[in-house]
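subagent[fold] <- orchestrator: predict structure for attached chain, return tokens only, no commentary.
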Amino acid sequence: MLNSIKRIFNLGWKTFVREKGVMVATIFVLFLVVSFTGSLFLLKSFGDFLISDIQEKIDISVYFKDTVKENDILSIKKEINKFPEVKKVEYISKDKALSNFTEKHKNDFSLIKSIEELGDNPFLASLNVQSWKPSQYKNVYSFLNNLEAGDSIEKIDYHQRESVIQKILSLNSTIKEVGTYVIIILFLIAIIVTLNTVKLSIYNSKKEIEIQKLVGASNWFIRGPFLIQGLLSGIIASLLSVAFLGLGAWFLSDRFMRLFVDFNLIELFINKFWTLLLIQFIVGTGLGMIASNIAVRRYLKD
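subagent[fold] -> orchestrator:
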């Protein structure tokens, strides 16, 4: 048994070295697919970061009537905090709201002057409510609407934020769908191209296969060397792809940091390295061996 396995490995390696042109073409196609799969994996992490970052800036604001006391608002805050979909509730007093507005528009002198001429603080005390997920804001809004404190609430600005929340949900869904379709298409292309390159390798080894059949070699023994070729092609493609993505992450890291201060691309690559390597090895070797197996099985049936 061990001798047969060794012979299969030796035959596979010899054919792999001999058929350099065919193997280079196979490795190149697998490299493209594996690299794109790895890129999508990193892109998903980047997409999750973007959505999380946007979500952190999205909330529902509950504005209270001027007559409502601060202690009453803080009691309502405690009640809202008990709702499972609520991640965080922040109390913004009238003075804090005025201070935030002044800081934000400090360069707009005409606007600041208009506020000062009013002679009174025009802002209302509010609670800024954040949910765990964008999809939960609708439930949070319904909960806020049904609070016993309804008479104390001036307004809830959910409808002004609803379009932004829907865009976040749509973006997340689109990234997943497009990524899935592209990977499926690339997988099919890779299998077709690899099938053709393996067929060429089989054609070049036609005499050897005929001799093996004549001496009574089993189909698995004949098929084995070609599976080894697919395995080796997948391993090399995966290693090249990891190196390529690593260099890409290193080169683009500073540019990403300029656009997204809290996002470090090279750090993401390092943190996800082993997962990325495993995914690429599975995809690369899987595609190489599946295509080789299909091609040899077809040939042996003919």
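orchestrator: received. Logging for downstream: The mean pLDDT is 77. The two ends are 28 Å apart (CA to CA).
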